[in-house]
Specification:
The complex is a heterodimer of chains A (192) and B (570).
Chain A (H helix, E strand, L loop, with lengths): L6 H4 L7 H30 L3 H5 L4 H26 L3 H31 L8 H32 L5 H26 L2
Helix pairs in contact in A: 2-7, 4-5, 4-7, 5-6, 6-7
Chain B lengths: L1 H15 L6 H5 L4 H31 L13 H36 L8 H21 L21 H4 L2 H31 L12 H32 L13 H35 L6 H14 L15 H29 L8 H24 L1 H7 L3 H31 L5 H27 L18 H34 L58
Helix pairs in contact in B: 3-4, 3-5, 3-16, 4-7, 4-8, 4-9, 4-14, 5-7, 7-8, 8-9, 8-10, 9-11, 9-12, 9-14, 10-11, 11-12, 12-14, 12-15, 14-15, 15-16
Classes of the chains: A mainly alpha (192), B mainly alpha (570).
Chain lengths: 192, 570
């Protein structure tokens, strides 16, 4: 079944390309989802100073390494966007692969971290701090995994020189995933 | 005109439908009109189920212990499940899909002169996720323990602990169904918003957009911005149910009131999410049948925006008895009473539009006028509940129940019938029967008032909600109270029976109705400039309309005709 784009998709009354406009609205809906979760956590944390004892256990070093990995993967997403702007799909695909590599590294480190914490008895049900810890980081990790999969599809298209505008769109999404982590890292790791 | 349209039809079919044929063409279609029909019929099917549930538990309340015809005896557990799922279905699987998804899908591209939504495949995905959510909800009614029985507000710890709600599996399935429904409407909403922003016909400026399209899109924005925290809350509640976390369990450092905040931060804006589309339909219909320009287009639009913004600051009026700080209760009393100003203004604009018009009482207009009258009662009784002092007395009584049915019934049922009877000629190319339409109208409106006015009275004497059998409460089991309950229940049965007239009318008109032509109501907006029903692509690609003026130019003094379509060159 052919999927010729409707005329509606090609119009741009605002001057903003349709895909970019849509991705910003996706982010708006994501902001309130993470906002609700982070807000709930913050209110709980302020009301329970004793949660600091549980928070003391989280591994700041691993969190910092993961922050570095994620920020670097955002940098290669920018390079991919630059290449796509010049119409160089192959280079864009290469940089997107680096970003996917960053995502995989992030998920692997996170798995190791969770495995060691769970094996020490800090499970999602052991304390409400840990419930928030696993829920917030877990929701974020789901976004990382989903983003990596979509990026694979975009990279494949870009390699064949198709739909190059999507390189920018997945980049915008990836920066958002990054920004969420920038909030989670201090809230879950640094605030002891 | 008709001949060219047939030609277009063949042409576009030739290049747009290489794929599935027959019935599959409709199942897998990405055409916004087909998706609108899918939402419409799914919503109507769910409405029949929700209505049947209301009939069953109302029979139990009025005639305790009776074997309900068509159902049998109602056990306390079943009663809980019936009221919970009645509420959930009517809001999430009837009001939302019909008012926003069905009419939004059908009308937005047509009203702005586009050939489809900007993301047709995401549109189809949205419906498929919605259908999945409906199937999960319906399946939950048949699992061990029955459907979820912890009320549609799903307050923990009742909803979080299987031992309390007795519907372990049902509760989790209900939660997953609701969460999937939210995902479906987020996808659909992004599509609506981007389509309206980017795909308008050349010449259509922001203030040339028909108010219906504006209102559905404002509702989509409002939904998107309010539902996020509840999605997070739903995940937390799901973990409380299944993984043994204690987010909402005070014994483990959690807080049950947090759920109430997350729920009502969405739940109150949700009232306006469904209200705004109904307001949009009503004002469009009022303008067309009064043959008069909308009184204050911009006022209407800005007021709707003000309502949407204010609706984020009223949620705690649902929690006045939950132990919130009385100073906080005062703040929320003030914001709640404030929101009646813009909502009142919306109704005044409609009444001012009627003033001096050449009013024609066709069936859609009757529905639109009854919306104004009935919603007014719902709004005015809300003042009692918004004031914390009065609410402490009325809280969780049938007064609350009657109040929100006086808002939701006009929104979801009257609003739908108004829109359906108005756009039916465009959707199916046939006129509805006026006489059957009027019988159905009066057969719905009169019993509706006889259902809920008795419930206002019972609520006033303190009759509590969510009680299975009032015989267990001697002070609520007086004969005169049972008479009022019987009036409400019998009126409900009468109202439900009159819906058969509606279905008869739809089937009869669809098969043998008079041909509608392009513009049977002589209205100005773009959807009336194409054939009825519109072909795939709505207009021939070369004939996509251009816009020269606003949508409500009725009775212009320089013109012989009393209307002036948006796409007619000067």
């Amino acid at each position: 079944m052919s999927h010729a784009k409707p005329i509606a998709t090609l119009r741009s009354a605002t001057g903003i390309p349709t895909g970019r406009l849509a991705i910003w609205w996706v982010l708006a809906s994501e902001v309130v989802i993470f906002g609700g979760l982070i807000g709930s956590y913050l209110l709980h944390r302020l009301g329970h100073p004793e949660w600091a004892d549980a928070a003391a256990v989280t591994n700041t070093t691993i969190g910092a390494i993961n922050t570095f990995v994620l920020l670097t993967s955002s940098f290669t997403a920018v390079l991919a966007h630059q290449a796509a702007e010049k119409g160089d799909g192959k280079t864009a695909a290469k940089y997107l692969l680096f970003t996917i590599g960053g995502a995989l590294t992030f998920v692997c480190i996170k798995s190791y971290e969770w495995w060691s914490e769970i094996s020490h008895g800090y499970t999602i049900a052991s304390h409400t701090f840990w419930s928030f810890y696993y829920t917030m980081a877990g929701l974020h990790a789901l976004h990382v995994i989903a983003g990596a999969i979509i990026m694979g599809v975009v990279a494949l298209d870009a390699y064949r020189g198709r739909e190059l505008h999507r390189v920018e769109l997945i980049g915008i999404y990836w920066h958002f995933v990054d920004v969420v982590w920038i909030f989670l890292f201090p809230l879950l790791y640094i605030a002891k | 005109m008709a001949d060219t349209a047939v030609a277009i039809d063949h042409e576009s079919h030739a290049d747009a439908h290489h794929g599935p044929t027959g019935i599959l063409k409709y199942v897998w279609s990405t055409d916004h009109k087909i998706i609108a029909m899918q939402y419409l019929f799914t919503g109507m099917f769910m409405a029949v189920i929700g209505g049947f549930m209301a009939y069953v538990f109302r029979m139990q309340l009025a005639f305790p212990g009776i074997s309900v015809p068509g159902y049998g005896q109602v056990s306390p557990g079943e009663y809980n499940s019936l009221i919970t799922n009645h509420g959930s279905i009517m809001i999430f699987w009837v009001a939302m899909p019909v008012l926003i998804a069905a009419f939004g899908n059908f009308l937005i591209p047509l009203m702005i002169g586009a050939d489809d939504m900007v993301f047709p495949r995401i549109n189809r995905l949205s419906y498929q996720i919605f259908l999945l959510s409906a199937l999960i909800l319906l399946a939950s009614l048949f699992v061990a323990g029955g459907g979820f029985g912890g009320a549609w507000t799903s307050y923990p710890p009742l909803s979080a602990v299987g031992e309390y709600n007795q519907t372990n599996i049902g509760a989790t399935m209900w939660l997953i169904a609701v969460a999937l429904e939210f995902v479906a409407f987020l996808l659909g909403g992004i599509n609506f918003i981007v389509t309206l922003m980017n795909s308008r016909a050349p010449g259509m400026k922001a203030y040339d957009i028909p108010l219906t399209a504006w209102m559905i899109v404002l509702a989509s924005v409002l939904f998107m911005l309010s539902v996020g925290p509840l999605i997070a809350g739903a995940a937390m509640l799901l973990f409380d149910q299944t993984l043994g976390t204690g987010f909402f369990d005070p014994a483990r450092g959690g807080d049950p009131i947090l759920w109430q905040h997350l729920f009502w931060f969405f739940g109150h804006p949700e009232v306006y999410v469904v209200l705004l589309p109904a307001i949009g339909f009503t004002i469009d219909i009022t303008s067309t049948f009064a043959r008069k320009k909308v009184f204050g287009y911009k006022i209407m639009l800005y007021t709707a925006v003000a309502t949407a913004v204010l609706s984020f600051f009223v949620w705690a009026h649902h929690q006045f008895v939950a132990g919130i700080d009385p100073r906080m209760a005062n703040v929320f009393t003030i914001t709640t009473l404030l929101i009646s100003v813009p909502v009142g203004e919306l109704l005044f604009v409609m009444i001012a539009t009627l003033y001096g018009g050449a009013i024609r009482l066709a069936v859609p207009m009757l529905w639109a006028l009854s919306f104004i009258a009935e919603f007014l009662i719902g709004g005015v009784t809300g003042i009692f509940l918004g004031a914390s002092g009065a609410d402490i007395y009325f809280h969780d009584t049938y007064f609350v129940l009657a109040h929100f049915h006086y808002t939701f019934f006009p929104i979801a049922i009257i609003g739908t019938f108004a829109a359906f009877t108005y756009w039916f000629p465009k959707m199916f190319g046939k006129m509805l029967d006026e006489r059957l339409g009027k019988i159905h109208f009066w057969g719905t409106i009169i019993p509706f008032n006889f259902i809920f006015i008795p419930l206002f009275m019972l609520g006033g004497i303190g009759q509590h909600r969510r009680i299975y059998n009032f015989e267990h409460f001697p002070e609520l089991a007086e004969p005169w109270m049972y008479n009022l309950r019987a009036i409400a229940t019998i009126s409900l049965v009468i109202m439900l029976l009159f819906q058969l007239v509606f279905f008869l009318n739809v089937i009869k008109s669809w098969i043998g109705g008079e041909k509608a032509g392009n513009n049977p109501w002589k209205a100005n907006t773009l959807e009336w400039s194409t054939v009825s029903p519109p072909p795939h692509g709505n207009w021939a690609p070369a004939d996509l309309p251009k816009v020269y003026r606003g949508p409500y130019e009725y009775g212009h003094p320089d013109r012989e005709e009393d209307y002036w379509p948006q796409n007619e060159p000067d």
